[in-house]
Amino acid sequence: MVRVGLTTERLVRAGAELADELGFDRVTPSELARRFDVQVASLYSHVKNAHDLRTRIALLALDELADRAAAALAGRSGRDALIAFADVHRDYARAHPGRFAAAQLRLDAETAAASAGVRHAELMRAILRGYDLTGPDQTHAVRLLGSFVRGFVALEADGGFDHSPPAAPESWTRLLDVLDSLLRDWPAS
């Protein structure tokens, strides 16, 4: 019998909170069942298995990030849009490290195509249109932007920048300026 008040949405949100507290890799149905003080079997009326739970947390994180990025980008273009987009991701990763990790989960093609990951790509491409990048150059630039944000955020979270000055926020600002300059002066293919 399903415990009163237990819903898929509550489980996924609680799983996202657990991810932020313990790390995404430590979110399991067993851990979630402990949080709700129920038997693990009670969860399977709402999620199929651990993979389904993790996928749903990833989808939640992608939705949250896309909503925040869209709001931050509204009315912005060029450098301002680039910085707003990058800052949203960095701020989200700092506030929700487990969810940010979840947003990196590799999804099957069908799930990915129906996810907010598509919105993320559209938002990045919209930013890059402000730099007059199209076709393959735009795809290369999307990959560069994604790699920069994900890489910097991961290194910062792991303490990779703690050993020497300048402080990470100063590097973040400087590197975004360099990225803006590179995008404006993108070499012709």
From TrEMBL:
PROSITE patterns: HTH_TETR_2. GO terms for molecular function: DNA binding. Residues 5-65 form the HTH tetR-type domain. Gene3D superfamilies: Homeodomain-like, Tetracycline Repressor, domain 2. This is TetR/AcrR family transcriptional regulator. Keywords: DNA-binding, Transcription, Transcription regulation. The keyword Amino-acid biosynthesis does not apply. Residues 28-47 bind DNA.
